[in-house]
């Protein structure tokens, strides 16, 4: 997919850098009077802005972009909350048509709003097709151009809209939760924070800011990210699959067209494969070659095979760049009378049970390092 290729990601670095710097600037402003910050909220804004700017930022600008962003953020949160509620009809299908919990009704309302919102975006893009060069166009313009230029392309505007919905709903929330879990684990563990800080100071220094080019030189921070996704996979059951034919797995017959869930949360904590599986030990990933590509079935944070997450490279860059910048620029302390906790809230998407709130304390001496 064009949006996730290395050339496209390299070309969009300025967008990621700008949004991350805006987050750092905001944190430094809050630090002036010691105000606590909801880290998850700010990370959401940063990642959401990056993803949507890459998708339709070339034509949706100014107040329209702000309004659109606020509406989308609310809808994503509402839809995610509904998806995380246990639907009793899953256990008693005969009662599904009654919708006793009202979940189907609520979801239809939110999906309708989402559908209308994306219609607005696409209408403006259809009008813009052909007015920008291929180098200037955003991802949505590219998809519409492909649909119009290639008669063999199996794309309709409905397909394009569905693809964008999947990318926003699936890409933003999971990246934000991974970032928030990583920050929660780090700030609650001084020994881990100290090692990351030493690595950042050695690679980046105290007289410069973090750039994406630094990330490959930060093996311990990468190990922390991998360990975070081992303990807290953002999709604990991955994306549901459906088998095309009846199969026998480990002696169990799985009928054709069954809905299949892979419990990676349990796999990642299996003592047969992991030493002290419930402990946060980033060092384990310094001692092996496990990566996010799903080649080893004991570690599948993004799935495996043909259905693996298409946006691994972008997610890795977004998450690492965000947390590296926040950890390099600030010390973090808990608000008075509180302490950092890492407790999970289970659902379709794994989240922190309580928002991560912390007070940023600038640690770099040059004020220019806290400007955009």
From TrEMBL:
UniProt cross-references to Pfam families, sorted A to Z: p450
Keywords from the named record: Heme, Iron, Metal-binding, Monooxygenase, Oxidoreductase
Residues passing through the membrane, by range: none
Binding site for heme: 309
GO MF annotation: an example: oxidoreductase activity, acting on paired donors, with incorporation or reduction of molecular oxygen
Range of residues in the leader sequence: none
Domain of life, per lineage: Eukaryota
The UniProt record lists the keyword Iron: yes
Cofactor(s) essential for the protein: heme
Family from the record: Belongs to the cytochrome P450 family.
Protein name, UniProt field: Uncharacterized protein
Organism: Brassica campestris (Field mustard)
